[in-house]
Amino acid sequence: MKQATPTLTTDWQNESSSTVRSKKLSWQATTTRYMWYIALALIAFIVLCALVPQWIAPYSPVDMVADRILQAPNAINWLGTDYFGRDIFSLVVYGARDSLLIGFSSVVIGILVGVLLGTVAGYIGGILDTIVMRFIDILMTIPGVLLALAIAAALGPGLLNIIIAISVSAIPGYARVMRGQMVSLGSRGYVEASRSLGASGLRIVWKHILPNAVSPILVMGTLGLGTAILTGAGLSFLGLGVIHEIPDWGALLSQGRGYLTVAWWICTFPGLAITVFVLAINIIGDDLRDRLDPQSSYL
Q1: Residue 103 contacts residue 225 (beta carbons within 8 Å)
Q2: Extents of the domains making up the chain
Q3: Contact predicate 44/96, CB 8 Å
Q4: 267 with 256: CB under 8 angstroms?
Q5: CA distance 122 to 184
Q6: Please, which residues bridge with residue 81 across strands?
Q7: Model confidence over 5-33: pLDDT tens digits?
Q8: Max CA separation in the chain (angstroms)
């Protein structure tokens, strides 16, 4: 009887610990799921603002009302007005278009060019692989934001120039990942079997390597979207962004910084829009990484 008591106690402790662990995992899964739904809803709303801002904004972003200059948030102007009497909510809604266009275009171009470079380097190999990857290594030694800033400063302000600048800063990461996938997947058994059956190199790349390399590229692109939007907002804040009568989020921040002490809402709400969208994108990206590329979540 004296020896049975510790065994029963140990079994009860193990069962209790297992129950606590399962409840904790269940709570984490539930919380993650709800956060994912909230993030997806926020992204959908902001994308809707970018696509059809006239359906959501109560006023035109270029309407100037002289008797409503620097009004705090109120029932008429939900997020207040700026120093021209323009409605801040309408400006934030219309500003989403250029901000998201910069982010999505930069990521798409970065993925296309980066995947092409990585595929060519990994497929051909040899001296071409060495040259391409050494050039990629040189670019990766420069912080992405600094590289984009240097390119944007050289090209000048403008929508196309800022997209080019951010795209170039994103290309090295995608190229390196794709080249690694080419080397890793190229030695798999099904690739060797296809090669032994006489399949051409291009067919092997198109049918076997590229489809299996989509997951890490997709995860990296989703997470990179938030970085691209942040970089675009930063360049616009510095005056290197889009020259347009309807400012994007970064330009709104720049225009309102001089009024921060007397009209805090001019900077606060565009900054909040950037924060919310980037945070939502990161939540979706983390979930995609856990689902599609679980090994990288431990790195």
Answers
A1: yes
A2: 96-298
A3: no
A4: yes
A5: 10
A6: 87
A7: 555 455 555 555 666 566 555 666 677 78
A8: 90
pLDDT of 191: 72
Fold of the domain built from segment(s) 96-298: MetI-like fold (1.10.3720)
Q: What is the pTM of this model?
A: 0.83
CA distances from 242 to 142, 231, 234, 239, 284 (A): 24, 13, 12, 8, 28
Per-residue pLDDT averaged across 206-223, rounded?
86
Question: Average pLDDT in the 266-274 region?
Answer: 93
Q: Which of 116, 228, 96 is nearest to 162 (CA)?
A: 228
Q: Which residues contact 33 (CB under 8 A, 6 or more apart)?
A: none
Beta-carbon contacts of 161 under 8 Å, excluding residues fewer than 6 positions away, are 152, 155, 240
Name the token pair of 64.
């100037």
Asked if pLDDT for residue 56 goes beyond 80, the answer is: yes
Specify burial of residue 196 (Cβ count, 10 A radius: 0-12, 13-18, 19+). exposed
